[in-house]
Structure to design on (816 residues):
């Protein structure tokens, strides 16, 4: 057994794949299965283990991917967004650098214990975080930069030839398809060289555009189903979960329903006295315009209580917590969140100042995430697991525990 | 001014139409407008008054239609479901009979004040409740039984000829289309004979089957848009709201995600000691199988506290309230609800005993309502209204106030 972040994991006896399907609201599976687009999933839900789990709030990609691979909440691993206000330097910075990761990953521990590990992620922004600490020779690359993957840096070369697909566009369903196809290609290697543990992480390009049951969504899940069936056929234990759900975030006129927090704060406190941080912010804003249902606010200490009350009274705001309350409620690192944490309702998103968002880039009615309303995600294993604890609050970051300890 | 249930209403100066769109989750409008299917609605949202309001919990058809026409919550009008346990007689009965209605309607008051009033409802089950107390000569009929409407009983005859459509099937989008077409036909009469106040109430056949943005939903809302545009063209003040929202209620395999309450209660307390009532129950079960997100429970007094705790711990249950708590929280008549009120989460419904539900009748993945998750509904007026109170909690049963007092 390996101990990682206070939890113990068995080493794999069968090839094991953990899949994080970005933005996989459970209803995507429901509608795709009902429509006959996921025959493998339908069988697996009936014969394997089917749970709905809570992901981590903020329901964003990076905090949840790191929770899954560390088996721990952000209070332990430190990644609480894509983007943060670095109080030390007084600047707003991306959180992609592995220096922000405070905890070892299960993948690093397994690889250091001699297991062949592989990580394939859709966007390159996650690669360095997910790969941190993995032993030399471990495979870790992104679809986005698959063409430049090499043995020295990524543990694998000639990925396009291996996978048999062209380099996908960063804004495409193909970016995720490449992840699955690469996973199948790696697992199709001879048993002595294929990965023993593999982590696949997709992108939510499709989920930001298509609601459950829409043609675009069903086509995506049909593609996923074929690849999962192939991994199952090879004999893999598969645990599938998601980083977050996804909901429509529109006003009745089809435009985003945005609470522009910085504009309210400037009006109440004076311009620039408070700072709104949107941790969804990343370089890939075309599909969400940096609009999610979670924000943090830095503001003068004497304004915290009154401002929290005023924020909580705004239409569309679900919860306002102080730093300490949020750290406790959502298991967040208190030193990396603002004085207030603000969560909006299911159909509402939070912006900074209206002037700072370009909604013109949105091609379809906004779908996004970040709030408590996107916390429910699938947690599915392709093996039956006996004696599942009733009443346990399952988390997406229990995926490695189920796959390694309970399903082999 | 007329006073009805403690609120004052101005008499109409322009022909006035209140529309209750059954199951109109606001996102139906958003997706249809974004897709270009509702040009009138798009203009109206920009130029008129666009609010999102809270409907009444339980988010069912009858309680909310009666709230809209009385301007009051169920604690005042007494209609808290389609179906209730009549403690006096010890029987479970439908609540369609007007004897259950405890408050006068605004329509009755207006008609008695000499105003020409009309009610057109999709299903006949609502007709007698909505028409209660209306002055002789008032129009009140259903699409479902339009072929038998007559002057003596319904205030209008030859409805099929008037509307120019065949009698629609009770399970169809056409049942609601007939409501709109009848409304336009009535308002197209000469000014001296057309209704001065008209209430139109549709059925949620389409919304139970199609998610927002689906082709079936968009076609329905396009149809509605054409008829609303026609009423607007005639010069009507139009206030549009809904009785409740609508959500997918499925497990990941596409089947209904049901908490079978009676089975739990029988296991905990002994068979038959508690009685689960599903107030969604009505004779038209094909589209929801009597599965909604709200139930009440009658049980021995000594079991209430412990049972409430056990119910609240069940997966998928959002809130469990005692009779007194529920009466206060949801403004319900305490004498017509059970000892406990149970509300399930957005994607979960409540059943009685598994053996008592026939899920085979469901043709598509379940969509239903009843819970707090279906409380948000549109409240739209085709006139700008100045000085709207900020911070006011708008209700669907403010529709008559907005239309009569603020928009003329």
């Amino acid at each position: 057994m390996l101990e990682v972040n206070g939890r113990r994991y068995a080493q794999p006896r069968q090839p094991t794949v953990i899949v994080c399907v970005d933005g996989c609201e459970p209803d995507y599976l429901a509608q795709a299965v009902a429509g006959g687009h996921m025959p493998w999933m339908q069988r697996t839900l009936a014969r394997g283990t089917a749970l709905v789990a809570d992901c981590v709030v903020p329901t964003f990609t990076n905090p949840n991917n790191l929770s899954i691979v560390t088996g721990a909440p952000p209070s332990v691993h430190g990644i609480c967004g894509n983007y943060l206000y670095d109080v030390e330097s007084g600047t707003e910075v991306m959180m992609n650098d592995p220096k922000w990761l405070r905890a070892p990953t299960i993948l690093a521990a397994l690889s250091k214990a001699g297991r062949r590990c592989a990580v394939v992620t859709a966007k390159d922004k996650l690669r360095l975080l997910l790969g941190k600490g993995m032993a030399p020779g471990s495979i870790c690359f992104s679809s986005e930069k698959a063409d430049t993957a090499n043995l020295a840096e990524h543990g694998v070369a000639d990925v396009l030839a291996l996978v048999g697909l062209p380099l996908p566009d960063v804004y495409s369903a193909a970016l995720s398809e490449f992840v699955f196809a690469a996973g199948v290609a790696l697992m199709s290697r001879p048993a002595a060289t294929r990965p023993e543990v593999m982590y696949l992480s997709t992108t939510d390009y499709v989920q930001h555009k298509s609601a459950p049951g829409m043609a675009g969504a069903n086509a995506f899940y049909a593609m996923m189903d074929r690849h999962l069936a192939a991994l199952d056929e090879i004999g893999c234990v598969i645990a599938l979960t998601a980083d977050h759900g996804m909901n429509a975030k529109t006003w009745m006129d089809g435009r985003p329903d945005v609470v522009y927090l910085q504009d309210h704060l400037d009006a109440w406190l004076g311009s620039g006295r408070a700072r709104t941080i949107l941790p969804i912010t990343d370089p890939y804003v075309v599909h969400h315009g940096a609009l999610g249902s979670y924000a943090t606010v830095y503001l003068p200490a004497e304004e915290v209580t009154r401002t929290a009350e005023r924020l909580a009274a705004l239409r569309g705001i679900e919860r306002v917590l102080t730093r300490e309350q949020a750290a406790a409620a959502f298991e967040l690192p208190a030193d990396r969140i603002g004085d207030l944490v603000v969560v909006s309702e299911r159909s509402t998103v939070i912006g900074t100042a209206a002037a700072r968002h370009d909604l013109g880039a949105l091609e379809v009615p906004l779908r996004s995430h970040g709030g408590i309303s996107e916390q429910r995600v699938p947690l599915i294993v392709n093996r039956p697991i006996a004696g599942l604890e009733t009443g346990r609050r399952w988390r997406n970051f229990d995926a490695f525990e189920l796959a390694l300890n309970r399903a082999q």
Notes: Chain A touches chain B at residues 26-27, 29-31, 33-35, 41-42, 45-46, 50, 52, 211-214, 248, 250-254, 313, 315, 347, 364-365, 376, 378, 380, 391 (CB under 8 Å). The domain at 2-245+375-406 of chain A is CATH 3.40.720.10 (Alkaline Phosphatase, subunit A).
